[in-house]
Amino acid sequence: FNTESEHGTGRAVYLLSILRRNMKKFALKMAVFFWLVLLFQIIIGYAAMPEKVSLFWSYIDRGIDCLYFSDSVMRFYNPGDESSDAIIDIMKAKAKNYTIETVEHPGYNLEIYESYIRAAVKSQKKPRAVIIPVSLYSLSAEWDRPGYKFPLEQEALKGRGIINTAAYRIAASLRKKPASAGKYLEKPVYAGEKQEGIQADYEGKKFSVYSDENFRKKIISRYMHKAGPQNTRIQALKKILLLLKGSGIKAVIYIQPLDHETCSAFYGRGFDDNIRGNVLYIREQCAGVEGIFLDYSKLLKSEMFAWKDTMYVNEHINYRGKYRLAEALSRELYALL
Question: Which terminus of the chain, N or C, has less C-beta within 10 A?
């Protein structure tokens, strides 16, 4: 009996030893698998880094004095212009005591600018100044469309360490999803305090044919909203101002030029009143900024805009407009630095 008991105990010990060896092998395989996955994620993270983010980090590493954030206005080329130079090209030619580069992309707005500026403030090499345009058009419901949120860039900008480089693509996929196309089209559109309709009423096939009524509707949807604290781009502006405070980075914040002459003539006095109120509200938010606030909403004449080929008013400008804007900004930046 004792012999059988000892035999059973020995067998159990033998099985346990095999199990331990197998568990160690499994743990070792899992550890190797984990590190291989991590290495793969790091390689993919670097290889697939959003182009604009890579450019931004290269500018930081080079110690560029001024970073100019912008949207499609920066490089828009109007066929027939005397030059295809972007605003940044003109400013570089005028720069005397500083270096300047741009981080721009169609659809960029204050929300993504906040992510870039947060990264700049945290970096060891900080720019001396940043230029931040505030597009009144971008405060409209049109800028709530899903494609204008840039989650990949926002996550990639959270850090340059191995962990964030490995995880930013996963983190971007886990972010709160922006409104779907259907929900976006249900966004309310206001003229001042009055709701005029929903976004679906202001875009679609019916706008492929010009009419005065369609033009008026585009003015309403793009410019007749009222800037306020509930607007996510205004919220981003407030965060930007907090980030810059005490950072040592000076700011040039300007209202992006708009075709006020055409819109005012077409819509009437209410357009000017609404723009004036929105500019005043934004100016108040920027009070105390370490730098300068500039109202360029009426800087350019109607003939300096380049939206006419697209049928409806926007903020794209031709070479004359780009030169005039670059000249004004260069003068202010020179004095600031």
Answer: N
**Alpha helices by DSSP H, the chain:** 2-47, 51-62, 87-94, 110-122, 151-156, 162-174, 181-184, 212-223, 232-244, 260-267, 269-285, 319-336
Pair of tokens at residue 309: 């080929």
How many residues appear in the chain?
Answer: 337
Residues 255 and 136 sit within 8 Å (Cβ to Cβ): yes
Q: Contact, 225 vs 293, CB < 8 A? A: no
- The reported pTM is 0.86
Written as six digits, the tokens of 149 are: 């949120």
Span 116-166, pLDDT tens digits: 999 999 999 999 999 999 999 999 999 998 889 999 899 999 988 777 676
Q: What is the pLDDT of residues 275-298, one digit of tens each?
A: 999 999 999 999 989 999 999 999
> At 130, phi and psi to the nearest 5?
-130, 145
